[in-house]
DNA sequence: TTCAAAACATGACTTGCGTCATGTTTTATA
DNA sequence: TATAAAACATGACGCAAGTCATGTTTTGAA
């Protein structure tokens, strides 16, 4: 529940420079003319800390792909408490879902964690692509299926595990998905405060602070938001699934 | 965590009788030859209480559609506690997701709530359909998108709301999605014990019993598993979103 | 380098809900 | 319709985690 500036001025959309799109599965599926057409429809937009890519309730205009950086998907309840549903990494798709169909609105917000670069295309171009290319449609189905499984796994953990186990599971997940190996352990590449973590595991900031203190004592982790290091991922795994 | 029999003998698969498939969107999308081919690939299977349609960890062989009855999707954690992720109703698809891709296994179990009828087709036939028909693929994308949104809404509620609010939200959801209007209120069409509800809202049976007792005192609901009636859905809605 | 704002930390107290125990009512099936 | 098994109910108690309060450290921008 931190205050959010909204300087939406700094982001600029423009044509996508060719090349260096190698790590995005959906784009590699297509070839020849289909690929060219797709690239032609994509534009790039950049966002910085404190901005919103879109807000809960906004009309859905684009289909998005994360190119660089990390984006968090957030929902909040009537009394302003927030819950972070997912950290999107490069290659991740968003708004490929039903919100993009009919005249629906975004069911949640998307906020960058630091500087990010987003590729996007109009809904119309997106649907055209899906209609024209079964490969692209299958890729999206596969992607959505994985997201659904992830979401359900998260539901299970939230429903059945204690807060310390959920926090351990989060650290393991982030560590394995995006951690950078260093000599002291695995470093998380994005800034991540205790409050961020609390929103991700469905608990309060104070509780996360206490638990991280304990984890630090037990030599499982070290550091704070700007430099968070996982020192013993194996023991965290055990803690998560006990 | 109730004991489960496993008399898998009673279910029989066979050709699907034509007609009376009107209420299944995916089937109505197709026409002519595509539709005929699809119907030819579908078989029907029936299951009863206490059976499993499939279990967590089983290999994925089929794509499924609920034809009649209600199916629950369940996951459990290492110490045997269960969590119900979703109640599937007629027209719902399952295993359209990534589990069906590559050699993955089912991430959760599917159990009938009473007698159900399931349509299913082989993974191969399913993929063939998606490749051949962009309409079918788009329908599946739309369906998966909706499921993902639902799952994330559920995550939010689980993370941010109290147990009584989550229970109220469940009753509202089931009531509006599948309730039958009667003179005393809205009746839920499936047998639903306090334990079932507890597994759906991430709490214990005792807690649900207590809360349902309170709800009954407050004239919000009445009845037990076999005949559960929502008497004041508006006040339940208010309670859920406060 | 300064200095205000975030972020982190820790204690005290409260509470929602889990756990365990025991009893009653309802439901299925022989 | 008998009767065992589910399902429902209620109380007592404990604890994980929320809340509030106060203080320290770190961070980032001027």
Reconstruct the topology from this structure:
2 copies of one chain form a homodimer.
Chain A: E1 13-15, H1 25-29, H2 32-41, E2 43-47, E3 62-68, E4 71-76, E5 82-88, E6 93-94, E7 109-112, E8 116-122, H3 123-132, H4 134-160, H5 163-178, E9 180-182, E10 185-187, H6 194-201, H7 205-217, E11 221-222, E12 229-230, H8 233-240
Antiparallel strand pairs in A: 1-2, 2-8, 3-6, 3-8, 4-5, 4-7, 9-10, 10-12, 11-12
Helix pairs in contact in A: 3-4, 5-6, 5-8, 6-7
The structure holds a DNA duplex (30 and 30 nucleotides).
Order of strands in the sheet with most strands of chain A = 1-2-8-3-6
**How many strands, which pairing sense, and closed or not: the largest β-sheet of chain A?**
5 strands, antiparallel
Largest interface: A-B, 46 and 46 residues
| Relative strand content of chain A | 15-25%
Mean pLDDT of chain A: 90
Question: Which structural class best describes the helix and strand composition of chain A?
Answer: alpha+beta
Helix and strand run of chain A: EHHEEEEEEEHHHEEHHEEH
Overall 3D form of chain A:
globular
Rg value of chain A: 19 Å
Q: What low-confidence regions of chain A span 5 or more consecutive residues with pLDDT below 50?
A: 1-10
């Amino acid at each position: 529940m931190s205050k959010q500036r909204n300087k939406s001025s700094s982001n600029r959309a423009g044509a996508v420079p060719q090349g260096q799109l190698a790590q995005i599965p959906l784009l590699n599926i297509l070839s020849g003319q289909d690929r060219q057409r797709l690239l032609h429809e994509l534009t790039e937009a950049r966002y910085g800390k404190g901005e919103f890519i879109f807000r809960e309730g906004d009309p859905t205009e684009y289909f998005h792909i994360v190119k660089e950086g990390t984006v968090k998907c957030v929902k909040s309840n009537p009394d302003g408490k927030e819950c972070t549903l997912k950290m999107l990494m490069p290659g991740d798709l968003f708004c490929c879902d039903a919100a993009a169909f009919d005249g629906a609105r975004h069911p949640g917000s998307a906020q960058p964690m630091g500087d990010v670069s987003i590729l996007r295309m109009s809904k119309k171009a997106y649907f055209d692509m899906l209609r024209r290319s079964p490969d692209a449609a299958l890729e999206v189905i596969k992607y959505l299926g994985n997201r659904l499984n992830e979401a359900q796994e998260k539901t299970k953990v939230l429903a059945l595990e204690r807060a310390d186990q959920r926090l351990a599971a989060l650290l393991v997940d982030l560590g394995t998905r995006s951690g950078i190996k260093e000599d002291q352990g695995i470093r998380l590449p994005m800034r991540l405060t205790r409050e961020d973590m609390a929103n991700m595991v469905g608990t309060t900031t104070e509780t996360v602070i206490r638990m991280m203190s304990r984890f630090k004592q037990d030599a499982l982790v070290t550091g704070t938001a700007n430099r968070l290091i996982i020192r013993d991922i194996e023991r965290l795994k055990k803690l998560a699934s006990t």
